[in-house]
Amino acid sequence: MTTIVDLDAPVPKDLVKRHFDAGELDRVWTSDITYLRTGEGWLYLCAVRDGCSRRVIGWAIDDHMRTDLVEAAVAMAVAMRGELAEQVVLHADRGCQFTSAQLARFAHDHNLTRSVGRTGVCWDNAQQESFWATLKVEFYDRYLWPTQAAAKLAVGDWIERVYNRRRRHSAIGMICPVDYENRITQTAQAA
């Protein structure tokens, strides 16, 4: 179970209400943590996806699931997107990493508004849960991973080269996330 609730932490509101695609890039980002089994023990992967394009814009993988893991993934997303003109909603489950004071400070410093779904309701973060299913069914669970190093390298490669640049999505016109973002950007520049 990756969702460990901190009952003492202030809980952000659910600003998304299962509407992950706001119709524009960088309006809603979804995030979560999943377990990855290796021959050397568990790894934990945190990913951040753009709700509109479905692109994984930040990710971090390590042998722990402390808030530092989430912060590293969100920091990658912020670095990839640059300075954001408007606030982005960062939506996740109620795991203690996402409700922590550490992540609250980081989010504030980077113009991110935190949002969380209800406890134990996976549909409130369904877009991210769907990504985990895709990762595991189409890639990760098809292999045995004797070492953590091999798993880290392969997961990063799959996210960046396969999922973001080749895997098509029915929700975005049967093209990959990078092509979808390029199409949106070109349309906006032409207008």
From TrEMBL:
<dbReference type="InterPro" id="IPR001584">
    <property type="entry name" value="Integrase_cat-core"/>
</dbReference>
<dbReference type="GO" id="GO:0003676">
    <property type="term" value="F:nucleic acid binding"/>
</dbReference>
<feature type="domain" description="Integrase catalytic">
    <location>
        <begin position="8"/>
        <end position="185"/>
    </location>
</feature>
<protein>
    <recommendedName>
        <fullName>Integrase catalytic domain-containing protein</fullName>
    </recommendedName>
</protein>
<dbReference type="Pfam" id="PF00665">
    <property type="entry name" value="rve"/>
</dbReference>
<dbReference type="InterPro" id="IPR036397">
    <property type="entry name" value="RNaseH_sf"/>
</dbReference>
<dbReference type="InterPro" id="IPR050900">
    <property type="entry name" value="Transposase_IS3/IS150/IS904"/>
</dbReference>
<dbReference type="InterPro" id="IPR012337">
    <property type="entry name" value="RNaseH-like_sf"/>
</dbReference>
<dbReference type="GO" id="GO:0015074">
    <property type="term" value="P:DNA integration"/>
</dbReference>
<dbReference type="Pfam" id="PF13333">
    <property type="entry name" value="rve_2"/>
</dbReference>
<dbReference type="InterPro" id="IPR048020">
    <property type="entry name" value="Transpos_IS3"/>
</dbReference>
